[in-house]
Amino acid sequence: MITAVTFNAAIDKTYVINCFRKNEVNRAGKVILEPGGKGNNVAKVLKVLGIPVTASGFAGGINGQWIEMLLEEKEIQHDFIRIAGESRMCISIIEDESTQEQTELLEKGPHVTEGDWLKWMGKLSGYAAKSRYVVFSGSLPEGLSSDAYKESIKIVNEAGSKAVLDSSGLALIKGIEGVPHFIKPNRHEFLALIQKEEFVMSDFISFADDLHTKGTEYVCVTLGKEGAVLSHFGKIFAAAPPSIKAINAVGSGDAFFAGMLAGLYRKKDPAEALNLAIASSAANALQLAAGSVSIKEITEQLKKIQET
After folding, report:
1. What CA–CA distance (Å, rounded) separates 250 from 287?
2. What is the Cα gyration radius of the chain?
3. Cβ 298 vs Cβ 304: under 8 Å
4. pLDDT category of residue 18 using cuts at 50, 70 and 90
5. Contact (Cβ atoms closer than 8 angstroms) between residue 27 and residue 124
6. Contact at 8 Å (CB) between 87 and 36?
7. Exposed, middle or buried: residue 234 (CB in 10 Å: 0-12, 13-18, 19+)?
8. Residues 253, 258, 264, 266: is their CA dihedral positive or negative?
9. Pairing of strands 162-166, 182-183
10. Is 266 in a helix, a strand, or coil?
11. pTM of the model
12. Within a 10 A sphere around the Cβ of 191, how many other Cβ atoms?
């Protein structure tokens, strides 16, 4: 099993509006509700790919109940720690399904108390013991220190499971110190890590080699339309996405993460896992809602990658 952790879970609400106008009344032609937060997006795609998954983390208030209900509708198991306050709502406004014009409104989410954190730490070893992988993905809510991922990853490692990390900023920097099995920053996050302005392959190789010596097995950087590069103990793999007309790219990084994890879970070689990740990301970009992919679309995109 894989446990997908979202410390800052959300309801993702997407409005499709024909010609959005500021300072006027706008009527949504379509409204889509999804369980959100990066870890939940990962869980949704893992479920589609046939990987046993449980969503976990923190959930608060009525929004937290909605998140759990929306996961149940997708037949995804969940085990959140209930906290005070309201889980956040993230709103996307798409002007037209045929364009990529999009506006996002992201709430910051509830405050996580020291007591909430102690409950989490008390349950984490149990999650790790029954999981092959524990996914830590997304931003940290108020109340959690920048060491939250680092501390969690160490517990997972001690339990004999494998921790994987997808975050940004100080949470990512500190999380790497916990020695995750796999990390996946995007281009912007990677450049912030190495304090450079341009992506250069030699910088990636040097960075990955340093992490490999410390115990991190897989280091990947996603590069948007250019695909992704992956290092597995110094062996470099690269893959480019198929040509698509994206509808909504939100969550495509999470779909990539899920595809890579599904490949590793099934003991695919790194090149095959990377191709599945690229295909999952492309399939996600063809949908209005993050993580609302189909196995048919993933398979179609995978064929295109394999044929190039």
Report:
1. 9
2. 19
3. no
4. confident
5. no
6. no
7. exposed
8. negative
9. parallel
10. coil
11. 0.93
12. 17
